[in-house]
Amino acid sequence: MALNEFNDLTILKSSKQSYPSGPDHARLETFPNRYPSRNYIIRFDCPEFTSVCPITGQPDFAQITIIYIPSASCIESKSLKLYLFSYRNTGMFHEEITNRVLDDIVEACSPRWARVLGIMNPRGGIGIKVAAEFSEPGFEKPSFEWIS
């Protein structure tokens, strides 16, 4: 793969750190998948995800796990880190966050299959787990035991 194939990775190349003010202002960058004919899993774990309650403004803490089988492109991890960081001061319910992250991943890289799991820390004595999943039509996900 030639270096010019990575010209679109502007966030990774930038030495100046810029934090998006919210997910609407963040950008997920991708790079070409070198193994597009193979089904394999990519998993990102973000154990320090933060957002705020849209009603009270109180901070919410969570672990977000993104698992996907790429097709033609893969998500670049630095852009993902800044994208997830953009939720820090964003008011959204947990269910919306999990589904929004999935939608943005699917839009950015058109995976064969993807799952986003949000494990929200308990607040008020109740923890919340939200899972959202996408599969391209007709795709049957192979079994990968370690992803559960």
Please describe what this structure looks like.
- It is a single chain.
- The chain has 148 residues and is of the alpha+beta class.
- It is built from 3 helices and 6 strands.
- The mean pLDDT is 90.
- The termini are far apart.
- 23% of the residues are buried.
- It has one domain (28-137): GTP Cyclohydrolase I, domain 2 (2-Layer Sandwich).
- A hairpin with a 2-residue loop joins strand 5 (113-123) and strand 6 (126-135).
- Helix content is 20%, strand content 33%.
- It is globular and about 45 Å long.
- The protein has helices at 10-13, 77-85, 94-109, and strands at 30-32, 42-52, 59-69, 73-75, 113-123, 126-135.
- The strands form 2 sheets. Strands 2-3-5-6 form a 4-stranded antiparallel beta sheet, covered by helices on one side. Strands 1-4 form a two-stranded antiparallel ribbon.
